[in-house]
């Protein structure tokens, strides 16, 4: 497996962290050229993305797969200090969050994590996903992303996008809209992940890897790991039947 490491959930002591290009260029998963731009959270596919945060202050990205289901990275819910997952009711989803405002708020009733996932380790990164079940629906079906329901084949060079709430811009939704798939990799337990060139750093964990289809945008993966050097990362598959063709 290449030199990738976890995009851990982040904790902020204040409203924002350091700013400026020099700081951004040293963030994991970004590289010397930062292609991320602010996007409009009132328009799809960005309107389906929101901020996942716990009452302990950790923050990640998530996205709606239905009016009541949010997908994110499982490691965002893990407490390293207690070595336990957070309580579901302490997790909140802020849809289309932007500078303190959001289109809807949902409290999590319970969450589902794949059996076999080992938190705090990249060994099972291919299982690093969590489905959050909200207490109530918070958006209409047209403000949700679709996931592949049947086997699909993707190729090297397939255009994709990645959006999220990231470490140096936590109150603004940013995205790399001009990146591609590069291949498949396996974690140490043999689970597959999608490799991509999208710029994304701490806080983008749980963000959707977006793929355009004639029927609209699909989320084909969940941002999980970032490259140690340069832009790029790995995304957990939303449909494990996905096949990569060179």
The residue-averaged pLDDT reads 86
N-to-C span: 18 Å
Helix fraction? under 10%
Would you list the SSEs in sequence order as H and E?
EEHEEEEEEEEEEEEEEEEE
Number of strands: 19
At the third CATH level, what is the topology name of the largest domain?
Thrombin, subunit H
CATH class of the largest domain: Mainly Beta
The oligomeric state is single chain
What's the CATH H-level superfamily name of the largest domain? Trypsin-like serine proteases
Largest sheet: spatial strand order: 13-14-15-18-17-16
Q: What count of helical segments does DSSP give?
A: 1
What shape does the CA trace take? globular
Low-confidence stretches: 1-25
Strand content: 35-45%
Main beta sheet: 6 strands, antiparallel, barrel
Number of domains: 2
Please identify the structural class as seen in this structure.
mainly beta
């Amino acid at each position: 497996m290449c030199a990738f490491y976890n995009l851990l959930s982040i904790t902020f002591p204040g409203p924002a962290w350091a700013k400026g290009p020099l700081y951004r260029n040293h963030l994991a998963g970004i590289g010397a050229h930062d292609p991320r731009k602010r996007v409009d959270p009132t328009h799809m596919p960005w309107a389906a993305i929101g901020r996942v945060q716990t009452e302990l202050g950790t923050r990640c990205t998530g996205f709606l797969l239905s009016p009541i289901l949010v997908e994110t990275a499982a490691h965002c819910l893990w407490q390293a200090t207690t070595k336990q997952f957070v309580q579901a009711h302490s997790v909140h989803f802020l849809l289309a969050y932007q500078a303190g405002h959001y289109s809807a708020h949902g409290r999590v009733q319970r969450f589902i994590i794949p059996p076999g996932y080992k938190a705090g380790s990249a060994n099972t990164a291919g299982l690093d996903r969590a489905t959050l079940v909200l207490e109530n629906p918070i958006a209409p079906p047209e403000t949700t992303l679709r996931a592949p329901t049947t086997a699909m084949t993707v190729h090297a060079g397939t255009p994709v996008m990645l959006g999220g709430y990231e470490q140096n811009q936590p109150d603004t939704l940013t995205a790399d809209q001009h990146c591609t798939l590069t291949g498949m990799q396996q974690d140490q337990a043999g689970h597959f992940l999608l490799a991509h060139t999208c710029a994304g750093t701490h806080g983008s964990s749980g963000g959707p890897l977006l793929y355009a289809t004639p029927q609209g945008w699909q989320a084909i993966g969940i941002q999980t790991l970032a490259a140690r050097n340069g832009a790029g990362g790995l995304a957990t598959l939303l449909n494990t039947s996905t096949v990569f063709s060179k």
